Amino acid sequence: MKNLFFVSVAAGIFSGTSISVTAQTSVNTVKFTVPQKKSVQFIEGIEIKRDAQATAEPDVWATKPAVSNTAPATVTKLNYRSTAKNNTASSAFIESCTALQFKYAQLMDVDVELITNTKLYAVIENWWATRYHYGGTTKKGIDCSAFTGALLNETYGLTMPRTARDQYAMCDKVDRENLTEGDLVFFNTRGGVSHVGVYLANGYFVHSSVHGGVTINSLDEDYYNRKYISGGRVTQQ
User: Fold this and answer.
1) Which of 37-41, 97-101, 180-184 bottoms out in mean pLDDT, i.e. has the lowest?
2) Single pTM value for the model
3) Tens digits of residue pLDDT in 108-121
4) What is the count of structural domains for the chain?
5) Sign of the CA dihedral 62, 63, 66, 72?
């Protein structure tokens, strides 16, 4: 009688739930079979269902990889910050840019649209990472003034004096805030005018560095900021 009473009460509590009772010789057990539902129901009339994947607005500035179930998605963007996202002419220009333009835009943290003097950057690329050698003038090794002379000659057809001090003497002096592409920048690294580079953009200049060979650095770096003397603009020819 107790088992029948228990089954009756259970049937009242779990209304709508199918119940099967299996009697055994030594043990009476009640087995409940609850049908599996297709979706989780927390509150009557409210269900959580899987939504269809939303269609995102296409991003013309980066390709977004598919979202992985095991790792967060990452978005890689080139380091340019054009505000003319919807400008057809600007987009067309960017699409026509070369890998060289993107490389130096990223190195100097500027918009790729500003890298227009491709001849200048092709010359820089040709000399890139050439080791520093005092008195050197070739790809086997070159010093700072020989490099600036070669760069200005190959890019602009200018003939420069051999030493940094002589290059400084022939230039019109330019304030740091007025520097433009192709100007020279001079430093006092070991007494007087002793180092020179070519200004590019956004505070960056290219030079033959004692430790890094032909490379790009910023005037804002502590060492070069402390050693900086002046900018110079070549006015000859």
Assistant:
1) 37-41
2) 0.63
3) 999 999 999 999 99
4) 2
5) negative
